[in-house]
Amino acid sequence: MAGEEINEDYPVEIHEYLSTFENSIGAVDEMLKTMMSVSRNELLQKLDPLEQAKVDLVSAYTLNSMFWVYLATQGVNPKEHPVKQELERIRVYMNRVKEITDKKKAGKLDRGAASRFVKNALWEPKPKNASKVANKGKTKN
Fold first, then answer.
1. Virtual CA dihedral for 103, 104, 107, 109, nearest 10 degrees?
2. Which of 105, 118, 119, 126 has its CA 20 to 30 A from that of 59?
3. Coiled-coil annotation: which residues (predicted)?
């Protein structure tokens, strides 16, 4: 877009923003084409249920985000539209999936090993009469 003439229908100050927006839309279009080239069933068969949930959530969030942008371009305040609640609902589910993923990655505690470490690490004082008991078996010559 650098070699193009600037259109007189909009202020020159926003030309760079519009160029960036156009490039971003092109990138989204390419990603959608790539994603749509594989059937959804074929894609989901290769994934475990958690990964399937991630794909569905990202897809739903992306579509709702694009609708948010569409509303903004039409002069509708998306903050006052039900799409805001939908995006928030999807975000809550994304956080749940993240928690599940983090729990899977977290280390598991071996209680038996932990109790042996603690038991062996604790200092136990010798009984006061331990030296007398040990000396009783010895005879003085």
1. 80
2. 105
3. none
CA dihedral sign, ordered 19, 22, 23, 24: positive
Q: Are 78 and 68 in contact (CB under 8 A)?
A: yes
Rounded Cα gap, residues 141 and 133, in angstroms = 18
Q: Nearest CA to 47 among 106, 93, 97, 102?
A: 97
The Cα 68–Cα 66 span in angstroms is: 5
The one-letter code for the residue type at 71 is L
Q: What's the Cα-to-Cα distance from 100 to each of 16, 57, 59, 107, rounded to whole Å?
A: 41, 14, 19, 13
Q: Where is average pLDDT lowest: 1-10, 23-32, 44-53, 65-74?
A: 1-10
Q: In the chain, count of helices (H) and strands (E)? A: 6, 0
- Distance between CA atoms of 59 and 93, rounded to whole angstroms? 13
Residues 41 and 19 in one domain: yes
Residue 81 counted as domain residue: yes
- 65 vs 9, more confident: 65
